[in-house]
């Protein structure tokens, strides 16, 4: 019997697993990657999963992993699956325990917080802030008695963890998500981490500040009633900052949609945020293009073909002008 913890490499995935493993420590094989690497159940290290093996799957669309999930269940593996993205048809199996909620104000770390009845709620606050669910994060922070200063520090931590997850490959990241998770697992509460900052936290702060500073020179492709679209260059700093900067622009312009196009070989990597005042339309837009997906509040396209840029800009305007 083997245990596998399979999780998205962003703040939400990491903090969801932290809560589970603090509640039930268990040696396991970690399977994770950059934030956009969501088809993790297809990884070769899972090829031998079979009867009696236990899988925890966190913050990954079930729809994108349905075929391998069904295969593992048929082989006799037991799976706990928790997520907030589009799930599609959930397999019917006594070996599957699924906790799925696609509501726009929910993320995986908040779902795990409910599942554990708040045992490690401070980590859930970090995950929610990292997933740009500031209202939900602040609501939970107030419920568990955190003050404004503590909430602000947890917000920064969540955004830094999320920042570390963005990149085209692991080479773009400051830290491998599994390495970062293992370091954070030493802390029962993120408040303990903030009292004794690690070198990794200092490195993320410095890297984030440097990458944000570079954003001042990027080109604006579109600015209209629908929203804002900006173009970032083909560079590691741009790939690292794209998601977190999209969240920041969305908070600064709550009635506008936001899209960032980051140049890459053959086209663009796209991050889309629906208006915070409505939180809908991002997935609908991105699914119009090959490799597009996500949830209604935040979605993306792994490769938008270069010749489709104008088509995307037109679809962006039409989509968010007609919600």
Name the features.
323 residues, 12 helices, inorganic pyrophosphatase (n-terminal core), alpha/beta, 11 strands, 2 domains, Diaminopimelate Epimerase, Chain A, domain 1, six-stranded mixed β-sheet, five-stranded parallel β-sheet
Estimate the global geometry from the Cα principal axes. Answer: globular
Q: Which segments are poorly predicted (pLDDT under 50) over 5 or more consecutive residues?
A: none
The CATH architecture of the largest domain would be Alpha-Beta Complex
How far apart are the first and last residues' alpha carbons, in Å?
A: 49 Å
Domain count: 2
Would you kindly provide a written description of the structure presented here, covering whatever features stand out?
With 323 residues, this protein is an alpha/beta fold. Helices cover 41% and strands 19% of the residues. The strands form 2 sheets. The chain has a 6-stranded mixed β-sheet with strand order 6-7-8-9-11-10, sandwiched between helices. The protein has a 5-stranded parallel β-sheet with strand order 2-1-3-4-5, sandwiched between helices. Strand 10 and strand 11 form a beta hairpin. Helix 1 crosses helix 7. The model has no long low-confidence stretch (mean pLDDT 95).
Please give the structural blueprint.
Layout: E1 3-7, H1 11-23, E2 29-31, E3 54-58, H2 66-75, E4 78-83, E5 96-100, H3 108-115, H4 121-130, H5 134-143, H6 148-165, H7 177-184, H8 190-195, H9 199-214, E6 219-223, E7 227-232, H10 236-252, E8 257-264, E9 267-273, H11 282-286, E10 292-294, E11 298-305, H12 309-321
Parallel strand pairs: 1-2, 1-3, 3-4, 4-5, 7-8
Antiparallel strand pairs: 6-7, 8-9, 9-11, 10-11
Helix pairs in contact: 1-3, 1-4, 1-7, 3-4, 4-5, 4-6, 6-9, 6-10, 9-10
